[in-house]
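We now fix the convention by which a protein and its fold are recorded. These numbers are not coordinates but entries in a learned vocabulary of local backbone shapes. A record is reproduced here so that you can trace the correspondence yourselves:
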Amino acid sequence: MSVSTTPGTVWGTWINLQGGIHSEPAPVAQADDRIQVFIRGGSNVLWSRLETRDGGWGPWQQYPGVSVDGIPAPIRGKDGKVRVFYRTPGNNLEVITQTSINSGYGSPQILATGIGDDPAATLGADGRIYVFFPGTDDALWYLRNLDLQYETYTAATSLTGAIFATPSPILDGGGRIVVAVKGSGETLYTIQQTGTNSATWEPFSLDAPNVTSRPSVCLDAAGRVQIFFRGVDGSVRRVGQTDDYNSFNAPVSLGAQIVWRPTCGLGQDGRVNVFIKATDNALWVAVQTTENGNTYTGFQSLGGVIGSAGISVPIANEENLLYVFLQGNGIARDLWLQRQTFV
């Protein structure tokens, strides 16, 4: 199947943003809707590039005093300021926060010590930031903003369980946070809040077997959680939330053969896009056939040659055009961008 030619879903030419990246890129939208992408560079240094107002890209920015191991987790808070959570080489959870909207970042703040893997963040229904991570005991842990001032955080709390990859949290259309995790025995589990802004959680639910990657999450146009992962046979698999936001349907296969976890995002036309690194090391995409539908097109190649790091979670700009960042192949480890255009 050929790539879409519908305005707003057309894919442009590849853009080389250079740099030397050593982990999956992590994009975030500033309060003025410019995209900023964070990466881990050599010697565990945190770097970023920020989109300019004319659609170009500013120079690389280094963050002195920040040492990051793994994939950073940036998120924009309800107050408009971006925060970047990350795991240090000493396995501490730290955060840097913008000093004001659309500005630079302050000094690192330690939030927890002795974490087991990279953090992931999402907003709760009231706008507070929740940060989830595996503990050294393999349990799922989280902390959140202490109050609506967004500058202080609770102590870490265990949700128990046994997880074996970075968790994937998201706020669903029913107003509750859902966290998808890879559990023991290559299984997919989910856990969700008992109510909007609740401090209590439902028990873990077993939702799929044969999971060989960290799950990825996004929302469809109805606000239902869609979970994608790599199956034991190398195919892309999807688990979709039920209409009442209370449980998940049985897993279905989207086919293809992949070597990394799939990522997903909602496109301008209301359809979910799923991105993969296929066995030819190129970037491929499949799209819902209809808004909120259960079927997808076949995967279409967007070309490129992807390196050893994963594909970023796609992010939409102010025009709801999707951006996908990835590490290029070769010694340079350049950061590359593929994005949708109107022409």
About this structure: The chain has a mean pLDDT of 96. The radius of gyration is 19 Å. DSSP finds no helices and 29 strands in the chain.
